[in-house]
Design a protein that fits this description.
Elements lengths: L1 E6 L2 E5 L2 H5 L9 E4 L10 H4 L3 H4 L19 H18 L5 E6 L4 H10 L3 E9 L14 E8 L14 E3 L15 H7 L8 E4 L6 H8 L3 E6 L2 H18 L1
Parallel strand pairs: 2-9, 3-4, 3-8, 5-7, 8-9
Antiparallel strand pairs: 1-2, 4-6, 5-6
The structure holds S-adenosylmethionine.
The site of S-adenosylmethionine has 21 residues, from strand 9.
Length: about 250
């Protein structure tokens, strides 16, 4: 476990999110935007514990990514674990702060329960239309992932704009750095519910798509990642971005 300060407003932690969150002060961040391990992918334990590269990549994809950690919990322990880290995020967030958490269709009901159990006021979901997905014979494609939107008490909206409820961004394989990379442009759109200089907490940094969007839009960023490989990928990505913008 160690910390890297890239600037006054960007701090990265290597280590377990739950342990690190307990060390952060009360009411220290303006927003939480994160993409935790989904522990999804099937109806039985075997499917859930499969290698994430099989669960979250279309068959036939050859590209290899560093292993993604923490993705094989059963449903009960996953909900309990989410409630624990979401409770810490609630404590660390300022009153009125927005929370945005990525999830898929399988875990949406479980995660909205955990969000509320942790004290957040659930305010809706945003759909991310990925524009492509595995074909499903005789039934609907699972073409969307979701962002659960909640707030710490009464939501302090920083904008009077009416924002969409669906964002369409394809996953561009050549731009992927992490097995489950999210498009930076999507994250930038989601940041519309945070103030222009907000500090954003992301306990599951991955390869730092949220971090890149925060730096590009002038926001602060606090990221945590357990995998040493992904931590170093994130550190290099954000250092490069910082030096380009100086
Ligand atoms: C879904 S990925 C995030 C991907 C990220 N949004 C991106 O676009 O690059 C979740 C990340 O959480 C990390 N992780 C898993 N368990 C963790 C824990 N207990 N503490 C911190 N990070 C953890 C995984 O290694 C993985 O990189």
């Amino acid at each position: 476990m160690f910390t890297v300060h890239l600037s006054d407003s960007v701090t990265l932690f290597h280590g377990d999110a739950l342990r690190i969150l307990t060390t952060l002060p009360d009411a220290g961040v303006d927003a939480v935007l994160t993409d935790p391990p989904y522990s999804s992918g099937g109806t039985c334990m075997g499917a859930r514990q499969a290698d994430p590269s099989q669960k979250y990549q279309q068959s036939g994809t050859k590209r290899q990514y560093p292993p993604m950690l923490g993705d094989a919990k059963d449903q009960h322990s996953w909900i309990m674990w989410c409630t624990l880290w979401l409770s810490e995020c609630w404590r660390i967030a300022r009153d009125g702060a927005p929370l945005m958490v990525f999830t898929d269709w399988r875990q949406l009901p479980a995660l909205t329960d955990a969000v509320q159990a942790a004290g957040w006021s659930w305010r809706g979901i945003v759909a991310w239309d990925k524009r492509s997905s595995r074909p499903q014979l005789g039934r609907f494609r699972q073409q969307c992932e979701y962002i659960i939107f909640a707030s710490k008490g009464r939501f302090a909206a920083p904008t009077r704009a009416c924002l969409p409820g669906v964002y369409a961004y394809p996953v561009i394989a050549a731009q992927k750095i992490h097995l489950t990379s999210k498009p930076v442009a999507l994250i930038e759109d989601l940041l519309a519910v945070t103030a222009p200089q907000a500090s954003v907490l992301d306990p599951f940094m991955g390869a730092a798509s949220v971090g890149e969007a925060c730096i590009r839009t002038g926001r602060g960023y606090v990221g945590v990642e357990l995998s040493r490989e992904y931590f170093e990928i994130s550190r290099a990505r954000l250092e490069t971005l910082h030096s380009e913008r100086r």
